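Recap from last week: sequence in, structure out.
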Amino acid sequence: MRKFIFITASSLALAACGMNGAEEDTDASTAQAEPAEDYGYETYDEENLADTMASNDDAQGLGDSVAEEDQDIPDTEERPIMQAQVVLDRVGFGPGVIDGKMGMSTENALRGFQEANDLEVTGTLDEATKEALSDWDSIPATRVVTIPASWGDAGFVEMPEEPEGKAKLDRLYYTSLDEKLAERFHTTVEVLKQLNPDGRPAGMEAPAETPSPTPTNDIAKVGLDSYFKPGQQVRVPNIGGDRIAKGSVQDRDWQRTLASLGVGSDQPEVDRIVVSKAGKTLKAYQGEKLVALFTVSSGSSEFPLPLGEWDIVGEAYNPPYRYDPEVLGNDDSKDNVHMLPPGPNSPVGVVWIDLSKEHYGIHGTPDPETIGRAQSSGCVRLTNWDAARLAGMVSQSTQVIFEA
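Predicted structure tokens:
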């Protein structure tokens, strides 16, 4: 296991992919992220520093991961595709947004799992793959959790559209409890609503005389137009591998970020990563063994992926972002340059993995649904949770290969 090692953004030649489709420089001397507030973060226990909704399980079962009142709410559906997605996510083959549907990212994850297990690479849930995945049949597709009451103090903000307004914020945090909950469980707000019809977990009977829960409009507590609320029981995709071992993460702000993304501290150490522009994948290897695969966005006709071999210079967790319209080709006015604060809604997401190719890196995104579909500005873009997980796998000794 490689521990997460914090390298301040100011120690890197940090540069960020452009907000509107172009590369832009970042002044390294101003790239130190400010510490975040606690944002409603309570740890699972003294030994597991994930949040209170942690799975706290192993690959064979749920253990004591959920509260007693949450254990007696069986799901109304089997959800086989979602079950495969949560297993693939747990074992390092990221299906992207977990939605219970077969899409490009899930097919990529299946191909990676099949390659790693010496199966025919089909990208489908064929019989051989189902048999190989059957070792994890005890992992259900969903589980019920209780949203921490402290999430009512989580500092949700309405996100301005213009960079000038974003620059005035302390942090580009989540806009609502709904958005935070969806990212925590690697899914979308729409999927969460489907798993919780009428505001209750699927399978929970409505109280005989009490009205069904309704969305709250308390913006101060849950953000703008939030459907869910603190203290509510909700059914979520059964994300695992989210344990954060005590002492494994040196930076508390990054520890909170990992907890908010459902990403654990125990990640495999990899020697080499290979990004395929055509395949829209990032593969991570230990020697010749494929141990992880994530779907990515990489490059465009104007800003192509820089093919070749590169080194990792370092990592910046929760980096700030310099918005420069002149670099973006939109405006030559120096007055419109803005330093945007860090946060999950930053244009580069929660982490920047700096490369020896100047101005290029691997990073997260505030728009996980676009991964693999929208082009990037030459850099390699992943979901925030996959980028955070990758950050725990690589080091300055990891070889980086970009191929067509």
